[in-house]
Amino acid sequence: MLVTWRYRLRNGLMEKFDPRARWIFSLAFLFAVTLFWDARFLAFFFIIAFAWYFSSRAKWKETRRGWYLIGFILFMMIVINTIITGGGAGGVVPPGGHLVWAQGGTIPLVGWQFHFGLTWERLWFAICQLLRIGAISAIFLIIPYTMDPRVYGVTFRGLGLPDRFAYSMELAFRYVPTLARDFGTTLDAQRARGYEIERVKGGIIKQIVRIAPLIVPVTMNSILTGEDVTNAMDLRCFGTRPRTWLQKLTFHWQDYALIAFSIILLGGGIITLYAFHLGNFWVPEFWLRLAGG
Amino acid sequence: MNNLPLVIENLTFQYRRRSEPAIEKINFSLQPGQVMLIAGSSGCGKTTLMRCINGLIPHSYQGEMSGDIRLFGESVVGMGLSTISQTVGTLLQDPERQILGSYVLNEVAFGLESLGISREEITPRVERALARLGIQHLRDRETFGTSGGEKQKIALAGVLAMEPRILLLDEPLASLDPASAQEALQAFRMLADEGIAVMIVEHRVEDVLSIHPDIFMYLDDGKMTYLGGTEGLMDVVDYRRIKLPARVVLERARQDPAPVFIPAIRPEVKTETLVQFEGVHFRYNEDGPEVLKNLNFNINAGDVIAILGHNGSGKTTMVKHTLGLLKPTEGRVLLEGLETRKMTVAQAAHTVGYVFQSPSQMLFAPTVREELSFGPKNLEFTEDIITQNVEWAIDTVNLKSEMEMPPLALSFGQQKRISIAAILAMRSRILMMDEPTAGQDYWNYQAFMDAILQMPGFDAVLFITHDVDLAVIYANRILLVYNGEIAADGKPQEVLKDEKLLRSCRVLPTSLLKLNMEYLPQTGRFYRAETLAHLQS
Questions:
Q1: B334 and B205, same structural domain?
Q2: Contact assignment for A237 to B99 by CB distance below 8 Å
Q3: Which residue has the higher pLDDT, B448 or B198?
């Protein structure tokens, strides 16, 4: 059985908007924020995102697991991909720059040469990345906690997706907490057989084999759940005729206002970047002074 | 005859990848308002027959079908699934597998939404379906948070909202407590009385007999070996294969040799305390309701405990505390004198073997042999001991022939037995089983319960069950749980004699319990009907 995200009505400002308007705003925000690498613009988006996030009245303990996951992803992207390897900054941060620290050498036995150089520009880029991903996360993370599961499907239908896709989106949304529940149950079942995930050691292959007791049952359960859901839908005539959606969504003035704001945000962003050429990667003077430049 | 709700003629079906037909030459018809009961052991073809009728065969399951199925005179050949579904409503074995909506209202409305019926019409039809089953109060609840019995009724309401004229029920009682099962059966009878043709596939034959089915079909290996009134079934069906009323078994078993059952665990032999619950309270989250309330009891060596209680009473939550999978929010649980808070689950697994309810949550290995070796390897047993334990465990569940098969390729009933064997192979001191007989046929579950309880090695066995007869036959102690509290704890003959208490805990006396109560002054303890037959003579 598919479960849902733990939703409860909090009477926050966010919940006063039609879910379709909220999705339009979230998507417009996503496209707008990805136009910029200038920290001043990103700070503006960051403030909007967190103002929006806090208008939900969601508590930290409700969303903390999501933030832990985002924190982990950010760590991987910023510390490893941007600061250590510099891969994430490619194409945005100009080559060269002011060195913070440099190291080179030869790897013993294999004799490979390596050069590592961290610049102040790359560090600033990491801050920009933090602002950008933080803002996007705040906008999207809050959706499942603040959107009534009863309106998932009808929202996507209202956004123009066909019935089948709209309902598939609803199922996909509910699949995430269902997967988490199944994983927890399987972990418990295997721990009851003396299995300890902490003791999974060895090379990559050995580690993959050792986590099979978790991955195989969870995967199999997902397949079985998929089959059950399909059968249950078939037995109740899904997809044979245009569907009626029990919940009815209606736009109000505040929804039009939010959609207008979304258009301005995205349209304004495009004009700012392409007409005025503002918003590209920029490093403040004081930062370079820190570098002694 | 032509316009009967359901007519089946010479129906044979073989799944695409199988060499034998799943069902062969099935013939019967069903009239409006009739209740038909179909029984047979696991794998006899019951579910395949249902799939043929509700259109899932050939729509979702491919194979070769011959013969004819007619719904109100029209052959289903070429009929779309949506057309069939408007006539034939299906309630799947596990309501959890059927419920799609996140809220009750949406779940019940799902079929009507799919048919494109207007909102104005959907709401009253949903209200009517809910009212028919007396669950209007659940209308705005989340489906996930409802009990097993409530889920069953919600799923049924979803089917009824589509106003079917034939209702197929696939093991509808499998996950229900006795009182919920009885309520569900009364609802089925009511629907039949309103003119719906009802077909019930069920292992719990004795329970279904209480609503007086009009026709009984017995399937054996895909073939129909009996079709007729229920009075005839008592004579033709092997009482060891299908659970019949205890008095019928008592009479029939007199002609056969007395069964031999010598339990290896005896309460009088040992008195060591293995597990202690001391003032245990538990809630799943801070704001949630209290699931366990001040539990105080011990599990001692020599105990064979049956835990009885209604759906959602906290039975599974309680048992998970023993292994440390859950920790009390207040109070403590001691395992062999050590607090479970201070040990890992893996350490606790040396003492407690716990069989989860659903086998698909744990089976993963490429062969049954490797599946069974997994636990003992984790516990770092030697190779010799592992081989010995695995052989013993597979013998106990009677599946030696499947040793090199992938467990996930086996039937649900076989998977369930493999999951039990996987825990048996760990040779824990305490064996705990959550609904070990759910989805198993009578013959198989009696066989493995007999084998487990006659096998030396366990100091205590504990099982959660909705099957009161299982408790009557095998337990030497009953824990009756109601709303997270222990309502009664004692010998079966002490706890189960209080019918008022049982009913208040949604546990209903069975014919075997009643028979045992009659004989109790002579016997002093409970026995299975076959044993009583010989004690009496």
A1: no
A2: no
A3: B198
